[in-house]
Amino acid sequence: MNMATPIERPDQMLGALRDKLGAAAVLIGTDVPARNCNDWSASLPQAPLAVIRPIDAQGVADAILTCRRAHLPFVPQGGLTGLCRGASPEPGWVAISLERMTGIEEIDRASMTMTVKAGTPLEMIQKAADEAGFFFPLDLGSRGSCAIGGNLSTNAGGNRVIRYGMTRELVLGLEVVLPDGTVITNLNKLMKNNAGYDLKHLFIGSEGTLGVITRVVLKLFPKPRSTMAALCALKDYAAVIELLSAARSGLGPLLSAFEVMWPDYWDVITTRAGVKPPVVAGDSLYVLVEAQGTDESLDAPRFQSWLEELMERGLLVDAAVAQSLAQTQGFWRVRDICAEFGQVLGPHISYDIGLAVARMDEFVGRCKAALAEGIAGCESVYYGHIGDGNLHLVSWVAGLSVEQQPKDEMDAIIYGLVREMGGSVSAEHGIGTLKKKWLGHARSDAEIALMRTLKAALDPDHLLNPGKIF
């Protein structure tokens, strides 16, 4: 595909697009909002040349064609809650924001699907499903801000992957605008549809580098009628693995979350964040187990007896069982308070990695020692979803600003160990620009070459979110 020779200046083209889409749809220069200059990463904000805010797929196509004629790089934006600069612009770029493309278009009760616009916040989708008598299981700490299009673009994970899978497993159909402005509409509702390539998987997890997602068909599930939660203390990681096995076999499909917190995490939240520990404190590892079922009269006693059996076996040092929704939410606050680490710990660097479940504790011990030995004053804490192979950690040197944190040295130690142990440098947050230097630690040269081939086929002029991932 060859670029047509530009016949107008970019400002003229953007002005013409504003005349077509409306003044509220095209913000230029000093009218560009600060929110469109960065995602939630701590990187330096960069103001785009313009922000285009379409209301439908045709508006997105018009925006793309304008950028192509002016040869302007462009980046799609949703809720901007990413942590890897995947949706962040560079100077001279145009941001195509889907913030005005919000709303639930349809809930199909028979097929148990929901069709939504890509800019719709995740929490709005959760509430709409709940009000309709269904359940949408994707859940993230940024639920009130993140947009479903961004969730798809990064193949978001979250708290319930162990039961429902990543975002990829929750999508049936897509509408997407290609880098040449072509609108592909396949709002499929069928569970079984093997008519050729399943093209939606090209775009899910591609971080906005292959196309702009504009509408989505999501899978819904029956609403849970019972939720049980327990916060457990265990003596060591071997006991954690045994508990995970017991939860999978004893709770079966009821198991919906398995969150593990190492002693250093527990120490931070109880001594610095002021969390009152619901179970005995010490050198234990801590696990939040959640189960969801369909009959409270049967599920709650089953969950209680399962825990009592584990206590009798001596597997648990201590355990607290939630007796109400408020207590369940309190248990989750213990795990979700990591979102407040900026206030609790001060400036720090967050990491999101994937590892074999059996080797996570080995990684924690080796990584913590390597950071402390290799970087003067470096501290780190560890926690994660574990049941789905996802470990999170934060590291920092006290007294330093975010810009002063020795991130390059931290990256080299952490990602070097990830590569040695056969893991992934990104379990659920994506690559963006902040991790692309380390992509080769998790993907082979042949895999990266194929990624480049796909990118070149769909975006030969490299105008759609260029320089991201690889």
TrEMBL record:
Residues 44-223 form the FAD-binding PCMH-type domain. Gene3D superfamilies: 3.30.465.10, 3.30.70.2190, 3.30.70.2740, Uridine Diphospho-n-acetylenolpyruvylglucosamine Reductase, domain 2, Vanillyl-alcohol Oxidase, Chain A, domain 4. GO terms for biological process: respiratory electron transport chain. The keyword Translocase does not apply. Its cofactor is FAD. Keywords: FAD, Flavoprotein, Oxidoreductase. It comes from the Bacteria. Pfam families: FAD-oxidase_C, FAD_binding_4. One of its GO terms (molecular function) is FAD binding. Belongs to the FAD-binding oxidoreductase/transferase type 4 family. This is Oxidoreductase. It comes from Bradyrhizobium cosmicum.
